[in-house]
Protein backbone atom coordinates (compact mmCIF):
# COMPACT_ATOMS: atom_id res chain seq x y z
CA UNK A 1 0.00 0.00 0.00
CA UNK A 2 2.88 2.37 0.72
CA UNK A 3 4.21 1.84 -2.80
CA UNK A 4 0.97 3.15 -4.35
CA UNK A 5 0.96 6.19 -2.09
CA UNK A 6 4.55 7.05 -3.00
CA UNK A 7 3.74 6.65 -6.70
CA UNK A 8 0.78 9.03 -6.33
CA UNK A 9 2.96 11.54 -4.49
CA UNK A 10 5.63 11.27 -7.18
CA UNK A 11 3.03 11.80 -9.88
CA UNK A 12 1.54 14.82 -8.13
CA UNK A 13 4.86 16.42 -7.17
CA UNK A 14 6.96 15.78 -10.30
CA UNK A 15 5.10 14.55 -13.34
CA UNK A 16 2.02 16.73 -12.92
CA UNK A 17 3.90 20.07 -12.94
CA UNK A 18 6.31 18.83 -15.62
CA UNK A 19 3.43 17.88 -17.92
CA UNK A 20 1.67 21.20 -17.24
CA UNK A 21 4.86 23.08 -18.12
CA UNK A 22 5.23 21.04 -21.33
CA UNK A 23 1.61 21.70 -22.30
CA UNK A 24 1.89 25.45 -21.61
CA UNK A 25 5.19 25.70 -23.50
CA UNK A 26 3.73 23.88 -26.49
CA UNK A 27 0.76 26.26 -26.55
CA UNK A 28 3.10 29.29 -26.37
CA UNK A 29 5.21 28.08 -29.29
CA UNK A 30 2.08 27.49 -31.38
CA UNK A 31 0.81 31.03 -30.71
CA UNK A 32 4.12 32.76 -31.43
CA UNK A 33 4.82 34.10 -34.89
CA UNK A 34 8.09 34.97 -36.56
CA UNK A 35 8.73 38.71 -36.80
CA UNK A 36 8.67 40.27 -40.23
CA UNK A 37 11.76 42.03 -41.58
CA UNK A 38 10.74 45.47 -40.31
CA UNK A 39 10.03 44.24 -36.78
CA UNK A 40 13.27 42.24 -36.69
CA UNK A 41 15.24 45.31 -37.81
CA UNK A 42 13.70 47.42 -35.04
CA UNK A 43 14.48 44.79 -32.42
CA UNK A 44 18.06 44.38 -33.68
CA UNK A 45 18.67 48.14 -33.67
CA UNK A 46 17.22 48.55 -30.17
CA UNK A 47 19.34 45.66 -28.88
CA UNK A 48 22.47 47.04 -30.52
CA UNK A 49 21.81 50.51 -29.10
CA UNK A 50 21.35 48.99 -25.65
CA UNK A 51 24.66 47.14 -25.93
CA UNK A 52 26.42 50.35 -27.00
CA UNK A 53 24.92 52.40 -24.17
CA UNK A 54 25.79 49.79 -21.55
CA UNK A 55 29.29 49.47 -23.00
CA UNK A 56 29.91 53.21 -22.83
CA UNK A 57 28.59 53.36 -19.28
CA UNK A 58 30.91 50.53 -18.25
CA UNK A 59 33.85 52.14 -20.04
CA UNK A 60 33.36 55.50 -18.33
CA UNK A 61 32.86 53.92 -14.91
CA UNK A 62 36.09 51.96 -15.40
CA UNK A 63 37.80 55.14 -16.62
CA UNK A 64 36.70 57.01 -13.48
CA UNK A 65 37.89 54.29 -11.11
CA UNK A 66 41.41 53.94 -12.55
CA UNK A 67 42.69 57.16 -10.87
CA UNK A 68 40.74 56.36 -7.70
CA UNK A 69 42.40 52.93 -7.50
CA UNK A 70 45.82 54.49 -8.12
CA UNK A 71 45.31 56.89 -5.21
CA UNK A 72 44.17 54.09 -2.92
CA UNK A 73 47.04 51.75 -3.88
CA UNK A 74 49.71 54.46 -3.68
CA UNK A 75 48.72 55.31 -0.08
CA UNK A 76 49.27 51.74 1.09
UniProtKB/TrEMBL annotation:
It comes from Guillardia theta (strain CCMP2712) (Cryptophyte). This is Uncharacterized protein. SUPFAM superfamilies: Preprotein translocase SecE subunit. It is a single-pass membrane protein. It is found in: Endoplasmic reticulum membrane. GO terms for molecular function: protein transmembrane transporter activity. Keywords: Endoplasmic reticulum, Membrane, Protein transport, Translocation, Transmembrane, Transmembrane helix, Transport. Belongs to the SecE/SEC61-gamma family. GO terms for biological process: intracellular protein transport; protein targeting. The chain crosses the membrane at residues 43-66. Pfam families: SecE. One of its GO terms (cellular component) is endoplasmic reticulum membrane. PROSITE patterns: SECE_SEC61G.
